[in-house]
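User: Can you predict the 3D structure for this chain?
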Amino acid sequence: MNTSTDKALLPAGLSDRLAPDAAIESDARENLVKSFIARGFDRVQTPLVEFEDSLLAGTGAAMAAQTFRLMDPVSQRMMGVRADITPQAARIATTRLAHIARPLRLCYSGQVLRVRGNQLRPERQFTQAGAEIIGIDNPAADAEAVLTAVEALNELGIEDIKVDLCQPMIGRHVMAELQISDDAAAQLRDALDSKDSAEVKALTKDLGPDAQSLFVALLEATGTAKTAISKIAALPLSGDAAEARDTLLGMVELIQDAAPHLSLTLDAAENRGFEYHCGVTFTIFAPGVRGELGTGGRYMAGSSDDGATPEPATGFTLFLDSILSALPAPAEADLIYVPLGTSRDDLAMLRDKGYRTRQGFDAGDKAAAKHQGCSHIFNNGTIEAL
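Assistant: Here is the predicted structure, written as C-alpha cells:
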C-alpha cells in the first residue's frame, strides 16, 4: 500500500523547488533576460514539446540521446521533450525569422528535461536562459557572446567568474589533414579530453614523430591565458587548423581588451560536451559552485531538413540551478500579518512600503501571526514588530 511518503517520491534528477529558492530563481531568470534585451536581443518563447524530426534536426541531433520521446495522440507522430533550447532558437531564426536582417539576436528562458544527468549536474530538469547571435561568422560575435554572459552574471551579483575557452576544431582539422579514420579519431579525441599523455602518444606513434609531437603539444597547450597564449601560438599548424588557432587567439585579444580583469583559461584540445560546435567554445565557472554556470560557442544554426539554409551562429546557455548556488543570499522583505477587514488601500500602502502582506482571517491575533511566520502585524493603522 502506498504511503504519503511514497506518493511524494520523485524520479531521480527531478525535484520540487520551494520558497524562497523558487522566487529567487524566477527573479534571476527574468533579470538575466532583461540584461540580454538591454543589449539588443529579442526574446522568443519555444514550445516544451515538438515533433521529433524537427526537434532533433541540425544542431538538435546532438541531443538525441538526451531527449524524452512520446506519441502525440492527435497527429500520431513521435514528439520529443526539449533537452536544450538552443536548437529551437536556431530553428526559429532560420525558418520563421529568415527574412529578418542579420545578424539576428535572440534570447530565451525556460525549462528543459533530459534523459539522464551527469556527475556534475545530476538534475534532469532545470531552467536555462540564453542568447544567440545568428547569421555572422566573426570572432567579435563570439567575444560578444562571452562578454554578454559574464556581464549578465555580474549584474546578478556573481563575481570572480572564470571563463574556459576551447578550440576543438584545431585537433579535428589536424586529424582530417592526416586522414585519420573516424574510429581512431574518436579514440584520440577521448585521450585529449582526458589529458592522457601516454594514451595520446600510443595512439599517434604510427603517424610519425612530427605528428606525434604536435598532438602532445596540443595536449599541453592549456592553462591561464597568460601562459597558454604563447604555447598555442607556437603550435606548428597550417591550413584550416592554423586558421582555427588564429580565430581563438583573436577572440582572446578582443575579450581581454574589453574586460582585462576577466579570468581566462585556454585549452586547444578540449572536445567533450561540444559535439555539434564548429568553432571556439567556452564554459563559465564560479568559485565554490558545483558544475558550470553556463556553456556556449560557435555552431551552425538551422537544418536543411527544415527547408532552411544553415547559418553561422554563436551563443550561450546559462543554467539556473548552478546560478542559484552562486548567488548571494538576498535580503527578504518583512512579512506583515494583516487582520481580516483591513482595507485594500491599507494593503497597497503596506506593499508600497516594502512589506509582504499575508492576509489573516481573524481580528489580529498575534499568536496566529507568529504561527504564520510573520515578522510584523498591522493593527489599527499601526505596524508592530513581533
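The two ends are 44 Å apart (CA to CA). The chain has three domains: 16-158+296-330, 162-285, 335-385.
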